[in-house]
């Protein structure tokens, strides 16, 4: 008998929680009973609650428990009770799984950022969604001979850098799909070795996406010894799809502009990639 | 270029070069080829198509002197120049 009372207490605790939540007023067993009787006509859970509290009321109050006839519904059947317990256990399992899945999703969304970075570093995609578009494309691309584009070159130097940096040709005429070479020249007139780092810009903005550099001298520190002069090549091509873009119909001039900065400790250049 | 006030517009995103950066030619080992190329450009009114041979030679010089990673010339877009050298000569 003790076992059944224990289970009874457990159900009471559950119900006590439920009732105080719903009613927001804690009532004694006496006050609750008529209320429960009203409710008992409604939902089935209340009926269950009624049965539980009925037990409790019988336990706590010294009232005659005959006033409330014990309900001999099929819910007092030990089989249904076991089934309910089974349902409750299964519900708890499902709830645990769902919560675990939700927490897992949250964690995965946080972990996705470094994982993607790692993936890009290993596969070398570096931000572009298409893999290997460069070397295969260069091999197979066909120059579009009827679209001649003039590429002008511009060279800039940051105020603190004392290099003489200039292009060796002011312009060059290329066609899309053809690789082209261009040269810049830089001289260090000072008596100290200077390290510079450069970035580039392409105007007009929309044409910049078709301007592909195979190799150049940008984004890496370049060291010039005192009084040294070097040639800096840029090997590039314009994507043949340039000729098929309707927005590029009127574009005949592309300007490539390089700017050199002095590479100082802690100086951060807008270098592309994952930094 | 767009002004600094233009927050909504896309800004230019510089992309790293496909094959990285050229090491500097501190000793001028390929300067001769470079001068040949520049002369060719100046003679041909800066048309790149006519000076592709010279640019190929410059890059070959760089590759020989370890100033550039070895690459088959097709991958650099000089596929038509390898087989038919005379073809390029005829064009220019």
Automatic annotation (TrEMBL), chain A:
It comes from the Eukaryota. It is a single-pass membrane protein. Gene3D superfamilies: Ctag/Cox11. Residues 61-85 are annotated as: Disordered. Residues 63-80 have a biased composition (Polar residues). GO terms for molecular function: copper ion binding. InterPro entries: CtaG/Cox11_dom_sf, Cyt_c_oxidase_assmbl_CtaG. The chain crosses the membrane at residues 94-113. Keywords: Membrane, Signal, Transmembrane, Transmembrane helix. It is found in: Mitochondrion inner membrane. GO terms for cellular component: mitochondrial inner membrane. Pfam families: CtaG_Cox11 (PF04442). Residues 1-22 form the signal peptide. Interacts with CNNM4/ACDP4. Interacts with RANBP2. Exerts its effect at some terminal stage of cytochrome c oxidase synthesis, probably by being involved in the insertion of the copper B into subunit I. This is Cytochrome c oxidase assembly protein COX11, mitochondrial.
Automatic annotation (TrEMBL), chain B:
It holds the Pfam family ArfGap. It is found in: Cytoplasm. The lineage of its organism: Eukaryota, Metazoa, Chordata, Craniata, Vertebrata. This is Cytochrome c oxidase assembly protein COX19. Its main location: cytoplasm. The keyword Cytoplasm applies. GO terms for biological process: mitochondrial respiratory chain complex IV assembly. One of its GO terms (molecular function) is zinc ion binding. One of its GO terms (cellular component) is mitochondrial intermembrane space. Belongs to the COX19 family. Keywords: Cytoplasm, Disulfide bond, Metal-binding, Zinc, Zinc-finger. InterPro entries: ARFGAP/RecO, ArfGAP_dom, ArfGAP_dom_sf, CHCH, COX19, Cys_alpha_HP_mot_SF.
